[in-house]
Amino acid sequence: MFHSLKMKVRRFVQKIYLIGESVEDPSAWTLGFRGQNVIFDKGVRFFSPEGIQIQDHVYIGPYTLINGAGHVQIGRGAMIGPRCYIWSSTHNYDSLDLQYLPYDHRNIGSPVKISDFVWVAGNVTILPGVTIGEGAVIGAGSVVTKDIPPLAIAVGNPAEVRRWRDEEIYTKLKNEDMVLLKYESEGLVKQVTQMEGK
Fold first, then answer.
1. Nearest one of 180, 179, 165, 158 to 135, comparing CA atoms
2. What pLDDT was estimated at residue 24?
3. What single-letter DSSP state applies at residue 24?
4. Contact present, 126 and 144 (Cβ < 8 Å)
5. What is the C-alpha separation between 127 and 84, in angstroms, rounded?
């Protein structure tokens, strides 16, 4: 009986999640919008992919899950690290007409917006209704529960602004259209490791 239940759950999950075949075959994913030079690493998964809009020159890291049920927008030049969870809906668990425990069959959608040139590091969870402002950086392992302003560097659980990016440098690079994935796709970027403070 347990094995039968396990198989039913597995089939149900496979129906819900559109599991990527491979980076080489992204045509299997029917997104609401997909710009140019969008790179999906291995194991990227979507729930309600029709509610997901991704602009140009975006990277989605391995084993990231994006729930588009409440709509997700990912801006131009954004980088999403590995094993991130982006949720745009949640279960109904606290309404006056709640029908079951711990939650009922209804979902409550709330859009997520990840603006242009945002970097979301690895193992980050972004909850429904959040907007991450242009050029912001979200540190590894953070849980984003509220809006993050542009150019902020936020970390923690819950994510809090710790410092700010240099606006002058950011604006200069933006005006020159220095988008990392754009230049990588043209073979113009060389990876260099530099130790901080050196």
1. 165
2. 38
3. T
4. yes
5. 11
Which residue type, as a one-letter code, is found at position 188?
Answer: L
Check residue 105 and report its DSSP letter: S
- Neighbouring C-alpha atoms within 13 Å toward the C-beta of 58: 23
Structure tokens at 98: 């709640």
Predicted TM-score of the model (pTM): 0.82
At 18, is the secondary structure helix, strand, or coil? strand
Q: How far apart are CA 135 and CA 167, in angstroms?
A: 9
Beta-strand pair 137-138/152-155: parallel
Higher pLDDT, 140 or 2: 140
Instruction: Please give the helix or strand (H or E) that residue 74 lies within, else none.
Output: strand 72-74
Cross-strand bridge partners of residue 58 = 38
Active-site residue set: 91
Dist CA 86 CA 147 (whole Å): 14
Distance CA 179, CA 56 (A): 10
Q: Rounded CA gap, 152 and 136, in Å? A: 5
Residues 67 and 20: their CA atoms lie apart, in Å, by 14
Q: CB of 56 within 8 A of CB of 38?
A: yes
Output the six-digit token pair for 165.
């990016």
Tokens of 122: 């690895």
Exposed, middle or buried, 65 (CB in 10 Å: 0-12/13-18/19+)?
Answer: middle
